[in-house]
């Protein structure tokens, strides 16, 4: 009776958006309002001595290794073993069962809702607080893409987000030919946390917004070069037309890619500092939904349009699993101190492959 009363009180004081839920075979039934595709509008982009080395690892075994301030409690439920389709088969630290318990409506706060999901939030790991690790600099170029697809059928601003497949293939081939290899944002964050330098000429490929062409067009090109990427997906758009489906997300994870958090609705988070429950919902819920879908809590975050401030970053840091967050500009080297404002290189279709390699080479200096 006491639990029911607490939940009722929590529900009465929290602004919960309403709308239809989305489901697909093999996916958790999550009662979360998902806006129409037209509602997700992309915003134009704003334009130490190493203490160790890390062997080159072109693919990763996903596992949540978080940092930051832990939230109160953890999502309830006991995970069962699930193995995603495709090869190679990774070992995940926690996986969704065949018939998971549904999420409560929208807000999935472990301090409010007792049933928050089927994959327990990861236990925060201690960050390396030594002065040497705090100031240790990492020179890892992070490339920012949105869409890899033909221009056909696209008009207006959407065209500026597209890199044609043949251009993307040439860019990746040039990076591989110059001796570069990929790591994910999760791997970079873990290296930064522990103070280990990645292998020389490591770089990260990121895709924003979770469009399906990242799977149908970009993934085969990446695989041809032995590359992996971090896909930042919008929680409410998973399984929507033209966006990544749960089965595709699982396949990406199985082949060493990472699924990152890009919020629930792709809205500017800064106004929500006056609505702390909404801010928490935008960030935490997206991580919880991704964890339920793929069995791994996201380790990286992407601010919509790169907009952030101190309060938003504090909430990101408090979200279980998150170690790093990216913006859309800047060229400063990465440090543990600026891990929540990590710069990226925006890649346009006009950027010639040789010029992309030059940009990456300059970033290493």
Describe the structure.
The longest helix is centred in the last third of the chain and has 19 residues. Helix 3 packs parallel to helix 5 and helix 3 packs across helix 9. This protein has a single domain, classed as TIM Barrel (Alpha-Beta Barrel), CATH 3.20.20.370. It is built from nine helices and ten strands. The strands form three sheets. Strands 1, 4, 5, 6, 7 and 10 form a six-stranded parallel beta sheet that branches. The protein has a two-stranded parallel ribbon with strand order 2-3. Strands 8-9 form a two-stranded parallel ribbon. It is globular, with a radius of gyration of 19 Å. It is of the alpha/beta class and 365 residues long.
């Amino acid at each position: 009776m006491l639990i029911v009363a607490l939940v009722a009180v929590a529900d009465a004081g929290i602004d919960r958006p309403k709308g239809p839920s989305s489901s697909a075979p093999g996916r958790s039934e999550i009662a979360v309002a998902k806006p129409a595709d037209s509602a997700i509008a992309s915003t134009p982009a704003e334009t130490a001595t190493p203490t160790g080395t890390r062997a080159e690892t072109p693919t990763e075994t996903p596992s949540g290794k978080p940092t930051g301030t832990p939230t109160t409690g953890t999502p309830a439920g006991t995970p069962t073993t699930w193995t995603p389709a495709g090869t190679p088969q990774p070992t995940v630290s926690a996986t969704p069962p065949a018939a998971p318990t549904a999420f409560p409506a929208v807000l999935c706060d472990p301090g409010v809702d007792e049933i928050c999901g089927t994959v327990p939030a990861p236990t925060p790991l201690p960050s390396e607080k030594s002065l040497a690790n705090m100031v240790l600099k990492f020179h890892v170029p992070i490339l920012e893409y949105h869409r890899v697809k033909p221009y056909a059928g696209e008009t207006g601003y959407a065209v500026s987000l597209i890199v044609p497949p043949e251009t993307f293939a040439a860019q990746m081939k040039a990076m591989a030919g110059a001796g570069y290899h990929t790591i994910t944002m999760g791997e970079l964050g873990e290296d930064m946390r522990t103070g280990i330098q990645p292998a020389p000429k490591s770089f990260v490929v990121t895709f924003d917004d979770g469009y399906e062409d990242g799977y149908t067009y970009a993934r085969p090109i990446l695989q041809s070069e032995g590359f992996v990427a971090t896909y930042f997906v919008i929680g409410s758009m998973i399984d929507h037309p033209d966006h990544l489906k749960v089965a595709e997300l699982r396949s990406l994870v199985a082949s060493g890619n990472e699924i990152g958090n890009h919020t629930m609705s792709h809205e500017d988070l800064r106004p929500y500092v006056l609505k702390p429950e909404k801010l928490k919902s935008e960030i935490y819920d997206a991580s919880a939904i991704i964890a339920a879908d793929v069995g791994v809590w996201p380790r990286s975050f992407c601010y919509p349009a790169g907009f952030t401030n101190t309060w938003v970053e504090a909430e990101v840091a408090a979200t279980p699993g998150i170690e790093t967050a990216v913006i859309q500009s800047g060229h400063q080297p990465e440090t543990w101190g600026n891990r929540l404002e990590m710069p990226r290189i925006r890649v346009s279709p006009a950027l010639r492959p040789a010029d992309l390699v030059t940009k990456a080479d300059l970033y290493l200096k």
